[in-house]
Design a protein that fits this description.
With 216 residues, this protein is of the alpha/beta class. It has a single domain, classed as TIM Barrel. It has ten helices and eight strands. It has an eight-stranded parallel β-sheet. β5, α6 and β6 form a beta-alpha-beta unit. α2 runs parallel beside α3, α2 crosses α10 and α8 runs parallel beside α10.
């Protein structure tokens, strides 16, 4: 587990934005103003150099706004651009190898798509995990939707921070919160919005509204 400050910030996080370098220039700063807590650079097309350059810019921007910055899939590039950590999927590098590269002082996150994977991630050397996709999404073409049952499963078993992912927007984020999620990963609803700041605020407000209902 990274230093306590990382652990505390992960638990306090609500909205996690994932996007590629091209969209980041337009969307990230307003999204951070709107309440995004984590940003992940997931760029499958850029060269290593392009990803590192974009990552360094995003790292500085996230620091300025008090947010965490992660790189997808490539722990070596995460270290090179001084990211806060790396996210590896089920088809990427094993989490133990990613941890060996980034060390103890950075975050390692992973993806889960089944109850068995949720259990494995909760026991593994990772700091958080994503659960889903709740709905099928073009960002993960061919990945079948897991539906709400897996969200409920994670809510009843998780000992680490976890995020509902897959088709999250204000309406589905509120539904995810009602199903037991405290945190969501968002791609298109913020990245493609005409006003990314307003979109981020709307997602966060939806989570907060459901939290108030649950506490009532």
């Amino acid at each position: 587990m990274p230093p306590g400050s990382y652990a505390d910030r992960l638990r306090a996080s609500r909205v996690y934005l994932v996007l590629e370098a091209g969209a980041a220039a337009r969307a990230v700063e307003p999204a951070l103003r709107g309440g995004v807590d984590l940003v992940q650079l997931r760029d499958k097309e850029g060269s290593d150099g392009e990803i590192v350059r974009a990552g360094r810019d995003l790292r500085a921007l996230c620091q300025e706004h008090g947010a965490l910055f992660l790189v997808n899939d490539r722990p070596d590039l995460a270290v090179e651009c001084d990211a806060d950590g790396v996210h590896v999927g089920q088809d990427d590098m094993p989490v133990d190898e990613a941890r060996a590269i980034v060390g103890r002082d950075r975050i390692v996150g992973t993806s889960t798509h089944s109850a068995a994977q949720v259990d494995a991630a909760d026991a593994a050397d990772v700091d958080y995990y994503a659960v889903g996709p709740v709905f099928e999404t073009p960002t993960k073409e061919g990945r079948p939707a897991t539906g709400w049952d897996l969200i409920g499963y994670a809510a009843g078993r998780a000992t680490k921070p976890w995020f509902a992912i897959g088709g999250m927007d204000p309406a589905t984020a509120r539904a995810a919160a009602a199903a037991g999620a405290q945190r969501v990963v968002v791609v298109r609803a913020i990245r493609d919005a005409d006003d990314p700041e307003a979109a981020a605020r709307a997602v966060r407000a939806a989570l907060d509204a459901e939290a108030r209902v649950g506490a009532a």
